[in-house]
Amino acid sequence: MTTRTRLSATVETDLLEAGRAAVAEGRADSLSAWVNDALRRQADHERRMRALDNFLADYESEHGPISEEEMESAARHTRARAVVVRGGPANQPRSRPRRTKR
Question: pLDDT value at position 92?
Answer without folding.
Answer: 56
